[in-house]
């Protein structure tokens, strides 16, 4: 690449200690003549501080971790047009892998990094935090329980989903505004907003969302549970969901009964509060992928 590069490995990510990831990291170091920095954490503040202290001297920063680790890097790298981000998927969901069309083998992954096809990517700001995608409602509960139980990959995710099933019958009444217009008023199981169509494991939850459109793509899934189950089948099959896509630059979600609305960003739980705002941040970071 002709640039000073580093690989930042978060061994706290779901598959970071597996042999394929270790091979990819080693090959990336040698191919890019890159430094290596290693941490093991699932704490966003700790990871952010660690990256901030180390990333400044590099022009290419390859993040080996999950979507959450890459999401932290977005927030550290934003506003630095001289900094390019690469990604070695090492989490459980790895939603961004599908957006970037990243291949499966370490050799092919590193070939993408070496080619260095980097494009500016739009992000969503969730009350200031940058991410590719965010979810409000039921999936944020699942994300929080998955993390609280130690993020034990498929087994942990299945347990978090099982624990959260009763919550599907506790829909939150909300008002959703897109660029000031009320687009939904009533119960909500799930709301998704972002600049990528994909959730973890390649589920196409928000088709039509694009990382270079200059606008956010919003979908509200009101439920009830049986309807959300039917929509989930469409995500897995990559069939267009029945929920309408709404494009906007700013989205506000407000609880109508004062109940706290849980929200996740790039798979990391942000907490719960009665009102959230989501805003577009055009061309926020530069990201290496297979963009052709």
Structurally, the number of domains stands at: 2
Helicity, in percent? 25-40%
Backbone shape: globular
Q: Can you name the CATH architecture of the largest domain?
A: Sandwich
The CATH topology assignment of the largest domain is: Tumour Suppressor Smad4
Number of strands: 16
Number of helices: 8
Relative strand content? 25-35%
- What oligomerization state is this entry in? single chain
Major sheet size, sense and barrel closure: 10 strands, mixed
Please trace the helix and strand order, writing H or E for each element.
Answer: EHEHEHEHHEEEHHEEEEHEEEEE
Low-confidence stretches: none
Structural class: alpha+beta
Give the CA-CA distance, first to last residue.
19 Å
Rg calc = 18 Å
> What is the top-level CATH class of the largest domain?
Mainly Beta
Structural description of this entry:
The chain has 292 residues and is an alpha+beta fold. The chain folds into two domains: 5-116, 3-Layer(aba) Sandwich (Rossmann fold), CATH 3.40.50; 129-283, Tumour Suppressor Smad4. Helices cover 30% and strands 34% of the residues. It is built from eight helices and 16 strands. It has helices spanning 19-32, 44-55, 67-77, 95-99, 106-115, 138-148, 153-164, 225-237, and strands at 5-10, 35-39, 60-65, 84-89, 118-126, 129-131, 133-137, 172-178, 181-188, 190-194, 216-221, 246-248, 250-255, 261-265, 268-273, 275-288. The strands form two sheets. Strands 1, 2, 3, 4, 5, 6, 8, 9, 13 and 16 form a ten-stranded mixed β-sheet that branches. Strands 12-11-10-7-14-15 form a six-stranded antiparallel β-sheet. Strand 1, helix 1 and strand 2 form a beta-alpha-beta unit. Helix 1 (19-32) runs parallel beside helix 5 (106-115), helix 2 (44-55) crosses helix 3 and helix 6 (138-148) packs across helix 7. The longest helix is centred in the first third of the chain and has 14 residues, at 19-32. The chain is globular and about 55 Å long. The model has no long low-confidence stretch (mean pLDDT 94).
């Amino acid at each position: 690449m002709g640039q000073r590069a580093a690989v930042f490995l978060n061994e706290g990510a779901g598959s970071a200690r597996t042999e394929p990831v270790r091979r990819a990291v080693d090959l990336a170091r040698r191919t890019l003549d890159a430094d290596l920095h290693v941490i093991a954490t699932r704490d966003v503040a700790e990871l952010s501080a660690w990256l901030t202290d180390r990333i400044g001297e590099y022009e290419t920063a390859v993040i080996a971790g999950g979507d959450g680790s890459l999401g932290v890097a977005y927030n550290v790298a934003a506003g630095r047009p001289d900094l390019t981000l690469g990604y070695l998927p090492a989490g459980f969901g790895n939603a961004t892998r599908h957006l970037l069309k990243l291949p499966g083998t370490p050799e092919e992954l590193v070939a993408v990094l070496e080619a260095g096809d980097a494009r500016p990517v739009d992000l969503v700001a969730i009350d200031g935090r940058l991410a590719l995608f965010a979810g409000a409602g039921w999936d944020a509960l699942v994300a929080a329980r998955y993390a609280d139980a130690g993020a034990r990959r498929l087994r942990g995710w299945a347990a978090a989903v099982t624990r959260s099933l009763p919550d599907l019958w506790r829909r939150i009444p909300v008002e959703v505004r897109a660029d000031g217009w009320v687009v939904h008023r009533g119960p909500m199981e799930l709301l998704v907003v972002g600049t990528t169509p994909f959730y973890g494991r390649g589920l196409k939850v928000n088709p039509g969302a694009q990382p270079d459109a200059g606008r956010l793509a919003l979908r509200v899934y009101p439920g009830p549970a049986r309807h959300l189950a039917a929509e989930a089948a469409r995500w897995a099959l990559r069939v267009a969901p029945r929920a309408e896509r709404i494009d906007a630059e700013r989205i506000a979600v407000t609880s109508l009964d004062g109940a706290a609305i849980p929200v996740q960003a790039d798979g990391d739980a942000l907490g719960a509060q009665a009102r959230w705002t989501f805003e577009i941040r055009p061309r926020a970071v530069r990201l290496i992928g297979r963009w052709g």
